[in-house]
Every structure is written in structure tokens, then in C-alpha cells.
Amino acid sequence: MQDLFSKAFSLVDLGGYGHLLLQGTWMTVKLSLLSFFLAMVIGVFTALIKSSKNVFLGFLATCYTTLIRGVPDLVLMLLIFYGVQNWIGQLTKIFGWEFIYIDPFSAGVITLAFIYGAYFSETFRGALQAIPKGQKEAALAFGLSESQSFRYVIFPQMMRFSIPGLSNVWQVIIKATALISIIGLNDLINAAVEAGKSTNKVFLFLILAAVIFLIYSILSNIAFALLKKYFQIGVKEAN
After folding, report:
1. Per-residue pLDDT tens for 89-115?
2. 96, exposed or middle or buried, with CB in 10 Å at 0-12, 13-18, 19+?
3. For residue 180, what are the contacts with CB-CB under 8 A and spacing of at least 6?
4. pLDDT tens for each residue of 26-59
5. Contact at 8 Å (CB) between 170 and 124?
6. How far is it, in rounded angstroms, from Cα 239 to Cα 234?
7. Cβ neighbours of residue 236 closer than 8 Å, sequence gap 6 or more
8. For residues 191 and 193, what is the distance between their CA atoms, to the nearest angstrom?
9. pTM
10. Which has the closest alpha carbon to 51: 154, 166, 145?
């Protein structure tokens, strides 16, 4: 994929800053994809906990989703980035370990995944509630274990109901990656601003960054349409 971006940017005269924009684009793609998949894992586990009968864990999961949805993303990013680094620094000091530094990319992935995992949990919880209870009972009656019934029966149906919500949150994640530049990550926005300042063409490079984000969003919509079609196999929709 990086070679493809290189060929695309070689066709445009960017004053020698095409490579910088390419690196920023690739960083944004990696950041968004890793954050998305980690957020999905957090969302599935949180949804299962909130759907279980464990009152204490359910209370903790509710506190997590309430906190995330009630505080602005930018504030959470700064709190998580500086807070986690500070907590790890104190732990290493207490146990006499070598200092562990969290680089901006890892911090960005953890931060976005932690924030949007809460939104995914509500999406998955709604999808789980849309699945008839008889589906799981039938799977168990056929001799499947709890994990097998979730993998082969519940999960595919949960994904089918979740695709529209996942697509919406994914679009928000793509745009939220731009906020990560404030913690020092060399993403697309950071690269566009640096290239614009160096060439005195800030507007041009920001327009290019906006076009790249738009293309990325369009490609994402196509991917989600294919996913929706995949999980709709065997399901007949009403006209």
C-alpha cells in the first residue's frame, strides 16, 4: 500500500514534501485501523459484561461508558496520554524497574481504542438484545459449548446488526485521528501543517489532507458495504 501512495504522490509537485505527506497518511491509516480493531475487542467484552448477570462488573462497565460519553474526546485524550504515562512512571519507580516510555503512536492507539470501545459497547449491546434468546438456547441444545455458540451463532448475527453503528463510529475515529497530532504524533495533519509552513502554502497542503481524508472515508464506506453484504448472506430483507 505504501508503494501505491508513493506512485500517487510522485505525480504531483509538492515541493519535495510528498514523502512527508505520504508518511503522515500511512501513520493515520495505521493509527485508525489498529484503534478500530482494539476498540472492537473492548466493545465486545464490555457489551458481554453489561449483558451478563454480574452486578459489580456491570456497574463498572456502566461507569466506563458513562464517563467516556460524558467527557469531550480531546480532554480524555490528554488525560489518558499524560495519566497513563505518569502511572507507569510511578509503578516503575516503586518496583525499581527501568523507566517505560509510551511513544505517541502507542499512546494514540490506546487512547482512541479506550474512548471508542465505549461507543462500540453500546452498539454491540443493542445488537445482542436484537438476537432472539431462542438462538442461543437452540445452539446449546445442539451440543455447542458457550464459546462455540457465541462464535458460530451469536457473533455473526451480532455483526449483522452492528454494521451500521460500526460504520458510523469508524468515520468518527478517522476524523479523531487528527486530534492525536496534539500529543506529538507525525500523522497526516501534522505533516500537512509542517509542509505548509515550510513552503508557505498551508492552505494547499490542508486541502490535500482534506481530500485524502475524504478518499479514505469513501473507501471505508465501500469496505463496510461489502461487510454488510457478507453478513447478510442467507438473510432475506423486506422490500
Report:
1. 888 888 878 877 778 888 888 888 988
2. exposed
3. 31, 77, 104, 108, 111, 112, 187
4. 999 999 999 999 999 999 999 889 888 888 888 9
5. no
6. 16
7. none
8. 5
9. 0.81
10. 154
